[in-house]
């Protein structure tokens, strides 16, 4: 069985990958498992660039196959913000509550019909000696008026999924993992899996 490193310091993401990658023939190792705690500077201006930077940095360090995820919330009424700045939208210290408060404040006077948004997940798969592969998954939603729900991480409490009539944070983890941006990206990766490895 192949071993793959998930190049993320976000334990919420790592948990989702561990669960969703069960359907693939791989064993998953996290940066925490490897005792790797250095921040990787996300200097790119796109999800694709940042995912590649994270995957290639870790692959070069450990000489092993790596999946990295660069993701975020793209809000139409905010011209795509917070986008690649989603993790630190309210300041350098990562703080999910402050980030959501900022988004809710900025959308205070925006009517429901204009609160459309997209979660985006771009995965970069870096394997020593091979070209990096990129796949992208999205999930459509509406920014709610308040935070609702206890599951998930990040912006999940303010991301309402119309088809399920719940915020992402009200979904059981197994439900989120069927419809999320990250799940949709992994579906695309699955189609290419045998060519990549
Ligand atoms: O870079 P790594 O170490 O993977 O962890 P991170 O949290 O910094 O991850 P990103 O740089 O990709 O920033 C993405 C941010 O977008 C948000 N986000 C991404 N996926 C999400 C999801 O499934 N649900 C809610 N928020 C999400 C969340 O706030 C993340 O911190
Ligand atoms: Mg990050």
TrEMBL record:
SUPFAM superfamilies assigned: ITPase-like
CDD domains cross-referenced by the UniProt entry: HAM1
Q: Which UniProt keywords apply?
A: Hydrolase, Magnesium, Metal-binding, Nucleotide metabolism, Nucleotide-binding
Instruction: Identify the catalytic residues.
Output: 70
Reported EC number(s) for this entry are 3.6.1.66
Please list the GO terms describing molecular function.
ITP diphosphatase activity
Q: Which residues bind Mg(2+)?
A: 41, 70
Cofactor binding: number and manner: Binds 1 Mg(2+) ion per subunit.
- State the superkingdom: Bacteria
Does the entry feature the keyword Metal-binding, yes or no? yes
Per its Swiss-Prot or TrEMBL entry, what cofactor is needed?
Mg(2+)
> Per its UniProt record, what NCBIfam families does this chain match?
PRK14822.1 (NF011397), RdgB/HAM1 family non-canonical purine NTP pyrophosphatase (TIGR00042)
- Its family? Belongs to the HAM1 NTPase family.
How it assembles, according to the record, is: Homodimer.
Question: What job does this protein perform?
Answer: Pyrophosphatase that catalyzes the hydrolysis of nucleoside triphosphates to their monophosphate derivatives, with a high preference for the non-canonical purine nucleotides XTP (xanthosine triphosphate), dITP (deoxyinosine triphosphate) and ITP. Seems to function as a house-cleaning enzyme that removes non-canonical purine nucleotides from the nucleotide pool, thus preventing their incorporation into DNA/RNA and avoiding chromosomal lesions.
The protein here is known as dITP/XTP pyrophosphatase
